[in-house]
Amino acid sequence: LTTAYHEAGHTVVGLVVEHGDPIDKVTIIPRGMSLGSTMFLPEKNKVSYWKKELIDRLAVLMGGRCAEEIFVGDVSSGAKQDIEHATHLARSMVCEWGMSDKLGAVAYDEHHDPASYGMHSEKKYSEATAQQIDDEVRHILDEANKTARKIIKQNRDKMELMAKLLMEYETLDSEDLNIIMEGRWDDTEKKLRVKKQEELHKRPTPPPPPPPEEGMERPLPSTGQESSAPA
Fold it and tell me: Rounded to two decimals, what is the model's pTM?
């Protein structure tokens, strides 16, 4: 149930924020190290992002952990990658892209040794500036957390329904999600759509070839290559 609420948190926040990417589906089927996933479908490949887009993306990343806090009353280690991604993104906003209101349009270079696993880095600024950077990163993440928490609380009924349906069906597609968010969910309609999808995926087994007639040689199987007899 924790995974269902976690993924529902990402999904609901992603569907509500103004600059969120379209969501293809959400699932609680484990894959690799992930207990579930919310799959986004960006409308186009981008190499540049507006600050408002990044702020919304941070809120989506924090949505899973916020949902755990609100509905489960605790947080799990399942939010590890979300927190790492959000922290890296917020630090890039401050240090690389000049998106900090407090520090302004200044690039703070950090050169990391890949072999050091983040233990050592060469900083070209003072400890006081380093503290300001950390404070700004924390502020950005705190604001994203507040946004995610507000959206989840305002859509509590949809969160409850989405988590329940994830427990029942394991995967919800974009059509399911839109119906939930529009408040017109119908179990009968969903079951009909599931049945239709199952029928589409069924492929009839072709009948075996008829046995050769008596006195006729069985044809050799084709190799897909043409051959010609010598003249």
Answer: 0.77
Give rounded-to-5 percent helix, strand, coil for the chain. 55, 10, 35
Q: What is the CATH number of the domain that holds 74?
A: 1.20.58.760
Question: In which domain, by residue range, is 161 found?
Answer: 2-111+121-201
Would residue 185 count as lying in a domain? yes
Q: List pLDDT tens digits, range 52-89.
A: 999 999 999 999 999 999 999 999 888 899 999 999 99
Residues 189-230 have pLDDT tens digits of: 888 887 887 777 776 666 677 776 655 555 554 444 444 444
Split into its structural domains, the chain has a count of 1
Residues carrying an active site annotation: 7
